[in-house]
Structure formats: structure tokens, C-alpha cells
Amino acid sequence: MERVPRVLVTEGAKEVIDQLRAEHGELMFHQSGGCCDGSSPMCFKQGQFRTGLSDVRLGEIVGCPFYMSRSQFEYWKHTQLTVDITKGRGASFSLEIPLGIRFLIRSRPFTEEEVKNLAPIETAS
């Protein structure tokens, strides 16, 4: 049985990620914990944002690792996250900001059945 992913991506966000990857190379995401732009998924060049033992890797979207702080994950562990885009400039350092859009998270609780088969998280390094 296939594992239930913890993080997904919309087609619109996938197109932006592909565009950013073509311009900047390999990418990574870190779910902001509330500073700067509230709680937004932030896109960086791979390795530009340093993850550590206080971060967890929830999975990948379009081949990009997706991280979140362990403490924030405790609040969100019961929800599936979907990375989407919206028009408007965010107040973060994320790579999509110059495009006049920003990434955002849509979430929904996992069902009881999904919880039994969730993809595992990994400790970041």
C-alpha cells in the first residue's frame, strides 16, 4: 500500500517551482514558523537555508525537499499540507517573490485511515 504523503503541490505551484528551478538550480522548501510572512512555505536554493536537528523533512514536492521545524510539526502533524500560489507580494525572502506571487499552504486533517499509513518524517541534518 502506498504511503499517504504529508505534503502535496498544486499544478500552479508546480509550474512556478519548475520556472524557479530553471533559473536558480536545485531548490528546497522550509515552512516558515511565523516570522516575516506569517506561516508560509519559503523556497530557497538548495542549501541556502540551513536545516538542523530541530527540523524535520516531511517529504518532497516536485523533487524539492520540504522541511519544517520539529516544534511547528507538533502542531501540524495531523494535517496534510498542499503548497499553492496566490497573487501578491509576500514579505519573505522566498525566491518566488519577484514574480509578484507567493507560495501559501492549504491544509486539511488526515482521515483516521490515512493516519495509519502516513509517510514517515526524517530528521534534517
Automatic annotation (TrEMBL):
A Pfam family matched in the record: DUF779
Protein name as catalogued: DUF779 domain-containing protein
Species this chain originates from: Salinithrix halophila
Top-level taxonomy: Bacteria, Bacillati, Bacillota, Bacilli, Bacillales
